[in-house]
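User: Hello, can you help with two protein structures?

Assistant: Certainly.
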Amino acid sequence: MNNMKKIIVIGCPGSGKSTFSKELHQITKIPLYHLDMMNWNADRTTVEKTVFVKRLYHTIQKEKWIIDGNYASTIELRLQACDTVFFLDYSLDVCLKGIQSRKGKERSDMPWIETTDEEDQEFIDFVKNFQKDSRPIIIKLLEKYSYKNQIIFKNRKEASEYLKLIQNKKSIRE
């Protein structure tokens, strides 16, 4: 845990990247940055790509950070800059349930509240195709950067147990 200074948290939408990142931030006190907050405006429009990349570059120049989010176009840049990767490699069912459970809730990682009646079919299709389209790209990149500290969780229980473990280690040292 002491050697973690620059951390990325990746995984399918709905896997709980932001929730995991927030808990990791609470334990480590490492500053947390959400890619969705760098990319989206409150009116559900995106910032210019150059603005997003500039915000990301500014963040990765910092001494310590946790960056939560996928954004395939910049994942390799973040992999190059990080020392630790958490990959929430969960099943489709878990991710779809995660998306349903956050509707209507205010979230610090998004500039708007998703209402319970809206269904973004393009987004749902992306999630449904994540295993076949996005995951292989992530796996290839993780292999390319295999010298980075990589922690892959297959379910929420593993992630939760990890957070409890590092919390306990921190408590013992304090």
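That covers the first. Now for the second protein you mentioned:
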Amino acid sequence: MIAKAKWLNRIQWDENGLVPVIAQEVGSNDVLMFAWMNREALARTVDIGQAVYWSRSRKKLWHKGEESGHFQKVHEIRLDCDEDVVLLKVEQVGGLACHTGRHSCFFSKFEPKDGQPDWVEIDPVLKDPDHIYKKHDD
């Protein structure tokens, strides 16, 4: 039972029952993305060996890659020293972690541009998002 899992009880869940999660690529150590998990998402991640997050906007579990096919195979799960942040070491299947079609969600870098500080997109779009995601008629 998820609620009684001792290893899950060690995590310092926030007031909404969530914990921040960083997905880091095995091998390159690139930080691919940041997301949230609840107890069920983390337990499911352990069960299936692929990243499952909690979507705060949709208020439901989100199996990374369920629409795009770009799954995250989990190689290792770590907990930080304060026990309030989870690190997933993942293999990014399909190469794209970001919904914008980039390898990483951290593609904007703060640096001077034309003499002014600004955010500069330093990583290219590898695949058009319109070709990644299914269109839904609402």
